[in-house]
Amino acid sequence: MSIGIFGNKIGMTQIFDKNGLALPVTVVSVGPCFITQLKTEKTNGYDAIQIGYSKGHTSKFSKAELGHLEKNGLSPLYHLCEYRVNDLKNYSLGQILTVDNFQVGQFVNVTGKSIGKGFSGNQKRHKFKRGPMTHGSKNHRAPGSIGPGTTPGRVFPGKLMAGQLGAKKITVSKLEILGIDSKQNLLILKGSVPGKPGNLLNIINSK
């Protein structure tokens, strides 16, 4: 498994390619992330790397969280994530991961929480059609029948109905990296990524 990196969504814009075509892109502020733990086959039963992102004040952390990071000489980090690897030779505690780990033209998977839209009806949540708007139908946006009556006398699980929309973990696969700014730690990705500007993102190389 490849090593990923954390970042925050800045926003969307567009750039023009060499043929003059406008391409929608998302600008992401990436890292720097720190390697906070090396897990080995001998100690933990598998090889893995834990990375941390976004420094915070010590008052925001529990004693266990502070001890885990301070024993390795690291400052408190809000977000931790683990990635399994086949070899630990190229990694060390405290190593800094930046946009230099990526290349232009590379494809990545981006994971983040989608925008929450609250309790939504069938038309917005599931793209249902509405009922007739005239002749006194009184069924403009109503859900209609949700199941048979006497038999089976219940609603089957998984029935598409109104409910919470958004605010879920979503992964967008195979987004191409169109540009990298090493000075400001920026990635320019073709297409859109989950969430609003400022949303936390996990970026990993696409297989």
From TrEMBL:
Record keywords: Chloroplast, Plastid, Ribonucleoprotein, Ribosomal protein, RNA-binding, rRNA-binding
Biased composition, class Basic residues, residue ranges: 123-141
Region ranges (Disordered): 119-151
A GO MF label: rRNA binding
Signal peptide: none
Classification via SUPFAM superfamilies: Translation proteins
Localization per record: Plastid, Chloroplast
Pfam families attached to this UniProt entry: Ribosomal_L3 (PF00297)
Main location: plastid
GO cellular component, one term: cytosolic large ribosomal subunit
GO biological process terms held by the UniProt record: translation
InterPro entries (UniProt xref): Ribosomal_uL3, Ribosomal_uL3_bac/org-type, Ribosomal_uL3_CS, Transl_B-barrel_sf
Keyword Cell wall biogenesis/degradation: no
Domain of life: Eukaryota
Classification via PANTHER family: 50S RIBOSOMAL PROTEIN L3, LARGE RIBOSOMAL SUBUNIT PROTEIN UL3C
Function: One of the primary rRNA binding proteins, it binds directly near the 3'-end of the 23S rRNA, where it nucleates assembly of the 50S subunit.
Family: Belongs to the universal ribosomal protein uL3 family.
Subunit structure: Part of the 50S ribosomal subunit.
Stated name of the protein: Large ribosomal subunit protein uL3c
Organism: Ectocarpus siliculosus
Source organism phylogeny: Eukaryota, Sar, Stramenopiles, Ochrophyta, PX clade
